[in-house]
## 1
Amino acid sequence: MNKIKKNPSQKEINILINFIDQNKFDEAEVFVKNLINNFNSSAFLYNISGIIFSKKNNINDSIDAFKKAIALDENFIDAYYNLGIIIKDLSVEESINNFEKVIKLDKRNINSFTQLGILYSEKRNFLKAKFFFEKVLILDPCSSDAHNNVGNILFELGLFNEAKAAYLKAISLNKDSFFAYNNLGRVLKEQNFFSDAIDCFNKAILLNPHHIEGYNNLAIILNENEMHNESKDVCLKLIKINPKYANAYCHLGDSYRGLRNFDMAINNHKKSIELNPNYLDAYNGLGLDYLRLFEYSKATDLFKNAININENDYQAYNNLAQAYHETQNFSLAKSFYQKSTFLKKNFFDGYFNASMIYLLEENYKKGWP
């Protein structure tokens, strides 16, 4: 007998949706397979099947199911969108293609514009990301999340006043947006409004006591303002929330170095590296620990490790320059200070440290400017 080519009844669809809503994904998988045996031309069922596979983290079968749904219905918006979501970690370009297909079919699809903004942001194509996030704002000018997303792009572009305005707008639309408060803190920190930035990070944590990024940013700014005991307390809270969070141990190490407890600083930076072997801030932190102990060979090796992880890390070049500076290798120190300021044009420490060498060498022409 030929298989019937039509969608199942509403009753059968409701049973299937009920399984998914109750997180009964094994039962849902069996049920949808039986339905597909009877309705093998149902794009709807293949799309649902893809969702079930994704919930079970069966990525390949999920992708195959969404593609089957699209093959059966080339105008199936949900299947393109779902495929774009599930394939993001495997192929950014293919993910982008699927969201663009959604927009061709539905020029007001806010979710796809948002996803495109996120993907181009991750690719560091900030102008394209800005374009898509601004499309969201045109469609929904009262979206707090959209203003927050635009603010993030403006922040990356170094347009801090504009970013601040976007975050403030996001907060005015949603006073509980801990994301916006955290991001506002970031931009205020860049503008050297440290007290206001600290207030924003604290507000973000108050709104969401498990907001890891808020704790992370608060720990950093407290250390930078030599409030090391306060930063230590924040780090310990963060470790309680997530004992495997490498950043927390790194910042805790920085706090202990500020408190001149070098053994604890070294232990925590090593723990950070153990949890994340590619975490360059931990290599920088451990290098600074050894630098304070005058163990220059260990320090320079660690700063070089940081540079190997990210050759554009201006702070690692500055740290390496400091090590050579302290061992009176002024030629190498100057070259690495120059590298740090080349990578970050407004890097105060790099200019100041280089000027000290020039003045020491009585090269006032270069030192004073």
Note: The chain has a mean pLDDT of 92.
## 2
Amino acid sequence: MSPYDDRVSDPNEPELPLPPERIRVITGGQAADEDGLDSMQELERARNDGLQYLMPLPKGLDETALELFGFFVYELRVGHDSSRWCLAHARHGPPLRVTGVQHPAPPLICQAGRSHDAIEVAAPFATPVLNGRILRPTSPRTDLWALLYAQVRQIDGKSWRNVLLARQKLTRPLADPNRDHLHGANVLDFGTGKFDQLQVTRTLQMLGLPPDSPLSVLTVEVIGEPFASSERPMADPLGKFLGEVRILRTSPLTPLQGICIQT
């Protein structure tokens, strides 16, 4: 997602923030010592058996943070919690350093509107950030696609099914010199596209569905394939080439407002 020739410096990996503890006097019955307890972030239990744990997000980040487009280096240690008395330097065991950890990407938001002529879709490209600096190149290295679905009730009436009507690659608007020079600013870059309403109505009729069937749209962001060529184009990563291109993130289904369809 960032320029291939953009060099990112190695992250700073400081030592654990622990007090020196060169000399300690310990007496019987003294209060519990919690030194070093907050020097590391505790993992979250995934199951009660204590065998599986979840990696929490770094402190200060939530699931929408743009920093989550990047990779992280973690240091894992087995240690004592507050239920066991110990010194700060005895609290944690030897480190296990893990590199290249990637959290789930920030959610993708699909914006969609509908008129009598077209269904318009917009979604933001991934914007990797490091230390407040945007690393997204002028031309994004990811591709955005929009998928248009019709909601159809099963014959038994117990559930609804999504029927794919069309998919389309979203395009980036023409470069704006007043915006593209803002390297490092917190600017989102959007891809946009349209579905022709007349073609959508024809597709519904061809499938034997009512022209006023409820519709919804979702957007998918895939990582561009740098090895695509004229002999092996990635023109349809969500169709013929599904599974050969990495899907970075997918938006929720966004329902479209109904309009009066003339038949």
Note: Helices lie at 177-180, 197-206.
